[in-house]
Specification:
The protein has 318 residues and is of the alpha/beta class. The chain is built from 10 helices and 13 strands. It has 2 domains: 2-177 and 219-243, NAD(P)-binding Rossmann-like Domain (Rossmann fold), CATH 3.40.50.720; 179-216 and 247-283 and 300-316, Alpha-Beta Complex (UDP-galactose 4-epimerase, domain 1), CATH 3.90.25. Strands 3-2-1-4-5-6-11 form a 7-stranded parallel sheet, with helices on both faces. The structure holds ligand A2R.
């Protein structure tokens, strides 16, 4: 199998690449941008076949696909950070929507027939009413950020290209995921990094936080990439599946678990910069539809995920 991962040097892409490399029977290809930071893939980079491709460039996309002719495509390249999407809505919409169209059009024009995974997000559900929890795939999509709108568009385009042209597209909507290599702009990682800086004496014992009352559904990134792989093996083209644990955790509970694991005594301070213009209070997904077709269950407990995340920052911060 020839597996292509766009955005392979990103957080999820690097874990998915490792997942496929471990199975040994796959050739793993990936796209990176010119000057992409290779840090996430540095330990196994020589086993990958990397291509430079800005997904906004239709010509580059077609050239890469025509060279690789993949059996599986995991489309992970994206502007993936919600707060940045308010500061750069045009960049977010162009990269995420036009980038995906470039991928689909290249597949179509080259008459390739790969299975294609589109990585949607729980952010697509946006405003969710308490009686709608746990969220199923049929819940209305009420996105609350430019990022979320871009993901809804990706999702619907995936459906449209399946219906219009028969492209074998399987969509997922992953709820929160974290683990080693999560960039520090994401909540679990920003906490973990600050804790390790305090542990190493690089910061006063005070941690800055955003909205601690939000409830999120967290899964380890290594369980999520296993789900993505299963989605292409067991999923039905044209369908969409939630990838979620089905359990909610308050951000405050996550912080408490991290504090317990690190054993550090500190004060907590709210930082208005870390609050979003419109935040989603409650996001818990129903993984039932995906579990029925794949048998997937998350295997890594959140405590292990957080421990590995702390160790990641321990290693990174000298
Ligand atoms: O910006 P870089 O050099 O770190 O590369 C990122 C890449 N990327 C692009 N690749 C090609 N052309 C572009 N115009 C372009 N813009 C960004 O996508 C990075 O390697 C990757 C995204 O990785 P992360 O930001 O770490 O996202 P993560 O968490 O791995 O999310 C993967 C997917 C995304 O579609 C999210 O929206 C979804 O899962 O949740």
């Amino acid at each position: 199998m020839r597996v292509l991962i766009t955005g392979i040097s990103g957080f999820v892409g690097s874990h998915l690449a490792e997942y496929y490399l471990k199975q040994e029977k796959h050739e793993v290809f990936g796209t990176i941008k010119w000057r992409s930071n290779p840090e996430n893939i540095i330990h196994f980079k020589e086993k990958l076949k990397l291509y430079e491709c800005d997904i906004k460039d239709a010509f580059a996309m077609k050239t890469v696909l025509s060279a690789i002719k993949p059996d599986y495509i995991f489309h992970l390249a994206a502007q993936s950070y919600v707060p940045f999407s308010w500061r750069a809505p045009q960049e977010t919409l162009t990269t995420n929507i036009i980038g995906e169209v470039n991928l689909f059009e290249a597949v179509r024009e080259l008459k390739l027939e790969p299975l294609i995974h589109i990585a949607g997000s729980s952010e697509e559900y946006g405003l969710v009413h308490p009686e709608e929890i746990p969220i199923t795939e049929t819940n209305p999509l009420r996105p609350l950020s430019p990022y979320a709108v871009s993901k809804v568009a990706q999702d619907l385009l995936g459906h449209q290209y399946f219906k219009s042209y028969g492209l074998k597209i399987i969509r997922t909507r992953a709820f929160n995921h974290t683990g080693p290599r999560r960039p520090e702009v994401f909540v679990t990682s920003t906490f973990a990094k600050q804790l390790i800086e305090i542990e190493k004496g690089k910061r006063k014992p005070k941690i800055y936080v955003g909205n601690l009352n939000a409830v999120r559904d967290f899964t380890d990134v290594r369980d999520v990439v296993r789900a993505y792989s299963l989605a292409l093996q067991k999923g039905v083209p044209g369908e969409v599946y939630n990838i979620a644990s089905g359990k909610g955790l308050k951000i405050k509970e996550l912080l408490d678990k991290l504090l317990e694991l690190s054993g550090i005594d500190l004060t907590i301070e709210e930082d208005p910069e870390r609050l979003r213009p419109s935040d989603v209070e409650l996001l818990i997904g129903s993984p039932e539809k995906f579990q029925k077709i794949s048998g997937w269950q998350p295997e890594i407990p959140i405590e292990q995920t957080l421990k590995d995340l702390l160790d990641y920052w321990r290693e990174k911060i000298a």
